[in-house]
């Protein structure tokens, strides 16, 4: 232990006296002294020194790295300073552009393993915390079944950007959770296993990503170590054609081949860690950060909610537009509810902040709201800025059977689940004109929702039937709400709302 601490002192003694004092304190036998060092390190974060120390001593001085690892000091330094002192990592992210990304693709193709590998490799610089596979898939059912069910949100930092990463579920049974996650992305990482190629959810995830507004896709061909090079070339060609089919730029979209599992296990080959660095370089270059609306009243589609003991209810989501601040008056809207509240506190990746801007993934503590009153899919918005309704005019396109849609035409009084933003409700579709819409046709329709929700002009939606996406559309205008008797959509008099 003494050798390790003296080596650290030699590296940093010319910088700050407080570091020398803290490191020397390790020479005693008290079990609390290492924690004292970590706290001292956190205290000087204002000068950005902890990040510099970690990078300089750990990367440039192999002897120090060996000594620190031997005495188990490096793990404590990284984990304590990073987790307990949020201002340490916040200072290193300052000034970096923020981008929302995520992993999409078929179940068991390696999305969660890739997410864990990214955080492990970036954690070496000290600005990113390693999040293990088990931490991402933390629900008991997820661990038992070995699949992702709920979208998980992870934070990491590259040389040029700060990322909020959503790991979406790939299983068909949890597609609504995937829609919720994809609706928050500025760009998507499509993960496809080299030994499987494209699968049903590969195609459906691309369709849904396009529908919710994702413009850029980077492909990561995973498990590349399991196949020959000629197979990799065929899979790449297949994926570029698939991107073109769904309106993405197949020719110019980056395609990276690698193995997330090899990278996670520390393999430094081209298919291991180097493939992760290639992927990170690709998303830094290819994903365009959109122009965000900071001037309009804020809207926060709610993705999740939980209770903090002694404080109240926290709602989680990605801010769609505007700026949210502490003590702002707000409303929770959706599912026939209109609840007035006040923003008591705001946290961005567990860092308490006075305000958050469009594009930030955040948690907002809402005053006087019981957790039983909040549902995923509700909208937290500036007071008086939005209205709820259940009747809308829209333009819709019904997919052909070849696209994964219906084989039969759609007629009025067609009732299925409608998905938009982070919510889904039963919806009745009535044709504005004509007797039917054939698969592959566009048309104007009236939408009648079972529950009153917030839908504004230009908002996109998806219609699903029997676990398949059968239609996509966009809202044209809001109409007068209609009365739904005994929750029976088939008995609604549509003329009442026109």
From TrEMBL:
Enzyme class: hydrolase
GO terms (BP aspect): mitochondrial translational elongation
Molecular function GO labels: GTP binding; GTPase activity; metal ion binding; translation elongation factor activity
Intracellular or extracellular location(s): Cytoplasm
UniProt keyword list: Cytoplasm, Elongation factor, GTP-binding, Hydrolase, Magnesium, Metal-binding, Nucleotide-binding, Protein biosynthesis
Cross-referenced CDD domains: EF_Tu, EFTU_II, mtEFTU_III
InterPro entries, per the entry: EF-Tu_GTP-bd, EF-Tu_GTPase, EFTu-like_2, EFTU_2, G_TR_CS, P-loop_NTPase, Small_GTP-bd, T_Tr_GTP-bd_dom
Record EC number: 3.6.5.3
SUPFAM superfamilies assigned to the protein according to its UniProt record, in alphabetical order: EF-Tu/eEF-1alpha/eIF2-gamma C-terminal domain (SSF50465), P-loop containing nucleoside triphosphate hydrolases (SSF52540), Translation proteins (SSF50447)
Domain Tr-type G per the UniProt entry, residue ranges: 96-291
Cytoplasm in keyword set: yes
Primary location group: cytoplasm
Organism superkingdom: Eukaryota
An annotated GO cellular component: mitochondrion
Family according to the record: Belongs to the TRAFAC class translation factor GTPase superfamily. Classic translation factor GTPase family. EF-Tu/EF-1A subfamily.
PANTHER family recorded: ELONGATION FACTOR TU, MITOCHONDRIAL, ELONGATION FACTOR TU-RELATED
Subunit comment: Monomer.
Name of the protein described by the UniProt record: protein-synthesizing GTPase
Top-level taxonomy: Eukaryota, Metazoa, Ecdysozoa, Arthropoda, Hexapoda
